[in-house]
Write a structure and sequence with these properties.
The complex is a heterodimer. By secondary structure, chain A is mainly α. Chain A contains twelve helices and three strands, in the order H-H-H-H-E-E-E-H-H-H-H-H-H-H-H. In chain A, about 65% of the residues lie in helices and about 5% in strands. Classes of the chains: A mainly alpha, B alpha+beta.
């Protein structure tokens, strides 16, 4: 009898807990729970996926305004295939407008994750990456920034107040011309905040560590060898590349990063085999760059 | 032992039943899959704001009744989106409904005004449009995964 009572209590608690999560908003609650960034995510839950998409489009425009977009359909198709397989294995496989992966011209090995799923790698990055598995893990790291909403979380708190004001003022339908002007002013500030984070200052070390851990999980779930990221970082280290410059300034030191990644891969038993066919097609896809 | 197993089953069933209800699609368009896997075949598409009847959840996928299939749980929300359930969005052009409903604040209307105020950015946005137009059909992605010995 006692066991029945315990079972019933467990069932009720489970039902109430799940129901409460649903009432709040299942998508936001689950995302926050899975990524473990609940405090900041709480603040960002008012930004809808649609709004995040339009902020992301503008950040993406800022990226391609600074670094020319490589409009090579074959190369873009290849990078998208690798990126999508990784993104589909993340805890946030769907964004409002979907994930889009592009290549931009820059000799510096770099990558940018814009809100909503716009992700760029530089030609310098493709030159330094040696295999498809390495690329998959680099893209996995960037997908994690999108899945964790790190870009959106960069919006300063003061902007939330302005946003809340307009959100409350608009029930449905289009904004009036005056409202659009005021809102565009807030929009400019917001994309400036996020743009600086994505392109200049970089994310916090804590965000980077979480993105590293998530990125190798996504890549491994897709079937890629998560050790790709270690191979890439070790190669960079061997070249004496200064990883603490520009957008990578906030990344943890490479040596510590490699150590933590190895521990994560071992803890999660993520290792997989690198297939030669993937390495060959990577070399073929990026050969022209 | 049997009683405990029955109890665990009861908890699982009740938790699963919590997904039963009506939710709204919160992404521009979502593929409805025949099974809870991105590589499975598509049985239809649902546009932003479509209402879906959900019944259960499995590994990040939610079963829906119309069309019968599975969609990622991150593609739907409990929040009500007030629009014609048959309305679908296609392409990148902003329809009136999308303008009205894509967000409470930042939407195509605001982006258009931002571009008007920053004409030097118009070309950059057109490149982003190009990037958004570069899509990968499912069969091509399936073939890519298969030939690369991926999942």
């Amino acid at each position: 009898m006692k066991k029945y009572i315990i079972v019933i209590i467990l069932a009720v608690v489970s039902f109430v807990a799940v129901g409460a999560a649903r009432a709040f908003d299942i998508g936001s609650a689950i995302n926050a729970g899975v990524t473990g960034i609940s405090k900041v995510a709480e603040a960002s839950k008012e930004i809808t996926p649609g709004e995040e998409h339009y902020i992301g489009r503008s950040i993406a425009a800022m990226v391609v305004n600074k670094y020319p977009l490589v409009q090579d359909a074959a190369l873009t198709d290849y990078v998208n295939k690798v990126g999508l397989l990784v993104a589909y294995n993340s805890e946030r496989p769907e964004t409002y407008g979907g994930y889009h992966f592009g290549v931009v011209e820059s000799a510096e090995a770099n990558a940018f994750a814009c809100p909503g799923g716009f992700i760029f790698v530089t030609t310098g990055m493709l030159k330094n990456v040696g295999t498809e598995d390495e690329l998959a893990t680099v893209l996995g790291h960037e997908v994690a920034h999108v899945a964790h909403r790190d870009g959106i979380n960069a919006i300063k708190k003061s902007k939330w107040t302005d946003l809340g004001f307009y959100a409350a003022g608009q029930a449905a339908g289009k904004f009036s011309p005056d409202e659009v002007k005021q809102l565009t002013s807030v929009f400019s500030d917001v994309i400036s905040d996020v743009g600086k984070k994505v392109m200049e200052s970089g994310y916090s070390q804590s965000d980077e560590k979480k993105a590293d851990a998530s990125g190798v999980r996504y890549a491994s779930s897709a079937g890629y060898d998560p050790n790709g990221i270690i191979a890439f970082l070790e190669a960079e280290q061997g070249k004496g590349v200064d990883a603490h410059r520009g957008p990578f300034a906030s990344h943890p030191k490479t040596e510590a990063r490699i150590k933590e990644l190895k521990a994560e891969i071992e803890k999660e038993s993520l290792s997989r085999q690198i297939a030669d066919v993937r390495t060959s097609r990577y070399k073929q896809a990026v050969a022209r760059r | 032992m049997r009683k405990v197993s029955l109890g665990v089953l009861a908890v699982v069933l009740i938790a699963g039943a919590a997904w039963a209800g009506t939710m709204s699609v919160q992404v521009r368009e979502v593929d409805v899959k025949s099974s809870p896997n991105y590589m499975s075949s598509s049985v239809g598409k649902l546009g932003f704001g479509s209402k879906v009847e959900t019944s259960s959840e499995e590994g990040g996928w939610v079963r829906i009744s119309q069309p019968a299939g599975w969609i990622p749980k991150t593609s739907i929300t409990k929040r009500s989106v007030d629009m014609n359930t048959d309305q679908k969005f296609s392409g990148r052009g902003a329809s009136h409904d999308e303008t009205a409903l894509a967000g409470k604040g930042f939407n195509p209307q605001v982006e258009a005004e931002y571009k008007r105020e920053n004409p030097s950015m118009v070309l950059a946005y057109s490149k982003v449009d190009w990037l958004e137009s570069q899509t990968v059909p499912l069969p091509a992605l399936q073939a890519f995964a298969s030939s690369g010995k991926l999942k």
